[in-house]
Amino acid sequence: MPLEQKPKSLNRGVELGPPSSGHAIRIGFTLLALHLLLLLFWTLILLCFPRTQLSLSLYLQSETQTEMMFPYRLLSLATEHFLIAAVADNFKLEKSLLIPFREIKVECTIPKDDGSLTSFIGFRVQHDNARGPMKGGIRYHPEVDPDEVNALAQLMTWKTAVANIPYGGAKGGIGCDPRELSISELERLTRVFTQKIHDLIGIHTDVPAPDMGTNAQTMAWILDEYSKFHGYSPAVVTGKPTDLGGSLGREAATGRGVLFATEALLNECGTSISKHRFVIQGFGNVGSWAAQLIHENGGKIVAVSDITGAVKNSNGIDIPSLLKHVKENRGIKGFSNADTIDSGSILVEDCDILIPAALGGVINRDNANEIKAKFIIEAANHPTDPEADEILSKRGVVILPDIYANSGGVTVSYFEWVQNIQGFMWDEEKVNNELRTYMTRGFKDMKEMCKTHSCDLRMGAFTLGVNRVARATILRGWEA
Question: Has 372 been annotated as catalytic?
Answer without folding.
Answer: no
